[in-house]
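User: My collaborator and I are trying to settle a disagreement about how two of our proteins should look. Neither of us wants to argue from intuition anymore, so we agreed to look at predicted structures for both before our next call. Could you fold the first one, then the second, and keep them clearly separated?

Assistant: That sounds like a sensible way to settle it. I'll keep them separate. The first protein:
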Amino acid sequence: MTKTSFKRGVVAGLTTGMMMGGAALAQDCTTKIGAVLPTSVDWGKPIAATAQYAVDLANEAGGVAGCKVEMVLRDSQVDPKVGVDAAKALVDLDGVQMLLGAVSSGVSMPILTSVTVPAGVMQMSCCSSSTAFTGLSQEGKTKGLFYRTFATSGVQAAVGAMVARDQGYKSVAILYKNDDWGQDIGKLVAKDLEALGISVTGSVAINDAQPSYRAEVTEALKGNPEALYMAIYPKEGTSVVREWLSLGGTQNMIVANALKSDEFRDNVGLQYLGNTIGTDTASPRSESASAFVSQYTAKFGSEPNGPGLSNSYDATMIGLLAMEAAGTGATGTEIAAKVSAVTDPNGTPITADAAGFSKAKEVLAGGGTVFYQGATGNVRFDDNGDVSAPAVMWSFTETGTEETQYISLEEVDAFMASVK
């Protein structure tokens, strides 16, 4: 499967997903959910397509609370202002009570604080990892309306430090995106590296859309680091790495999952990325996670190799199940309150497909609870709406990326405890 044909499959998924999900749809009412996702960037389209796929499966199972679900999708452009404006339109004009989004903590946070919490709308993020959300919840400022299916930045930061240790690097420079996510993971990885006795020669912020990053790269090169850690996005990442290499920087690079992108690989050149090791959270080695890979491949013609795809699927499915549990006309607060009823370890296990959704509808209608077995495993949220997850190390290949090491949840937790 070529990159071009994969993109065609994604576009087809987005296009057909806005139509009815199949002959099983007989509802005479429509319930809207909102989605603020970065469809204008190469790696964002599959995230949106995956969310729409979950909506299609729910509709195939008869919809939610007796109504067909329509996902109203707006592009965030990975820009906080654009994201907030999109979220406001979805809440004020479309009247959504559940919002999927966003990608990037720097976009999700202002949506949460200025749109969804004030309006009492539930927000379910697939791809926001900043620990600032945890702090906000602990202060009672999320009002129980925020959930995310992506583990906190602490996991990727710890695994990034683990990579540096395993590679024997004695010094590392850090380049991070200057937003909530980048600042958070940059701070955490610096702390973990230093806890391992690895010198952090510099930590430099990267702002969006600069004509040149020579000054930032020059600053990061001071101290002649053995390796570079990056928590930035593909567009800026391409420019940064080109500057880094042209100024004599090492090809020993450790990257967060935001750079797990064909766009970044192709624009930099695979020949310069041979020593690059990526990190990401991962699905557990479970039957439900394997089933999602097969399901996704059958739908889109390629395995889910991009960032956030399994997380996007689970975020959407869990949100829709909570809407089903809350019933017709439920408010965002009522929907959020039902998340525990569809991720209950003592509930009836259900699969992450149309058949599982149908079974969940029956169980919930009878007053029971269900335990969603998803693309990221058996999803369980803590009191702050956070999840834990295993992790992987990966490398770039000619056709995408490949996993090089799997780190179990127990191993992740043990390592994180050791660096604390």
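The second protein, kept apart from the first:
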Amino acid sequence: MQSNAASFSARDRLIATASELLATGGLRSVTARALAELTGQSASAVNYHFAGREGLLAATFEAAATQAAEYRGAWASSLAAAPPREAFSGWYAAVILQRVAAAPAFLVLREMRHDAARSSAHRGLARRELEASDAFWRQAVAAFQLPPGAAEACADFAEAILGIHGGAPDYPDQTAWLIETVHRHCARLGGARGPTRGWDGWRQLARARSGLAERAEARLAGGAGRIAAAAAEVLGREGLAGLTHRAVAAEVGLSLAAVSGAFPTRAGLVRAAFDHLIASIHTVRSGVVPDPGVRRPIAELAVEMAEALFDADGAAPPGLLALDELLTAAIREPDLRRDAEDLRASRGENSATLLLRMNHATDPVDGLDAHILSIVATGAMRSAYALEPSARRAWLAKRLTTSLAALFG
């Protein structure tokens, strides 16, 4: 029989190792073999300490939530001095940059929210994490004397930014782009309407130099395009764990040999899904097409966005889930990071049209505003994963109404 100290140490090592695997490889990487190899424990250790893999995942998600709470607590302590409103932009940028740099715990929680989109296993913890995050941002917004609705916009922006800018930004322009976006976001929350600081230059530069859309279309000529579309569909529906040659073959209606011949490796399937989304970037968006020339209330458009992001059963469109999965993969796999740049830079194509049709006081709006709207909508969608499917649409519509009014109303 192991001593309590030894038992705790072994249990702790399993949680730490599972956290690393989740952050670097996602749910599919947390296997008995990988845990045994990395911890030096037997394959039965997970059953002994956690009564199975689900118990280990629950404990790992709880540990990540505790780390996130400590992170928020450290930043909340800086609010005790009642900082001036003008200091919000600098404080907020520091919070976001440190959150990005301290990515592992948040990537684990991101994996938990992904799982909550499709499974109820960890949805309760996802809901508690959402509530804790919202409480932190309400405290911050109150301390800086910002409008109450800014809390939701901050919470959802912070939730989405990891996937959009790819973990710790690994190129100088990515950091500059992130800071530029944060400053515009803060300006809008602070009440700036009309022309304001920020030129949308880094996003435009990323699009101009990537050339990925043209290369993606060339790689998808002929039957490869059908297979890539099927790979994206499977990825959105089943996640990275379900993206196999057999699943893609069944989806596209081809033989396993045909799919394996076109894309021999699993990494090739992931890249094919990337190519499909890059080539069709102008259609893989919120799905909202406002009436041309008609200005409409924010609340009406928020309802339409919620209906586009979740169907009547509370399921998200496979294309959007696939986009999210691929941006997460780009955080973990360096050779995909530049591929993801075009996906990041193209965010907001439909959002720009949406802003032009919105009744708001922010005239004129530009591509950077549209990028921010897309980020906030993505974060709100991920937050809604924590709810039961039947409640997602209504909750999201209310959430977006509040956030968009704080930013552009």
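Some points you might bring to the call about the second protein. Residues 1-6, 282-291 have pLDDT under 50 and may be disordered. The CA atoms of residues 360 and 409 lie 5 Å apart.
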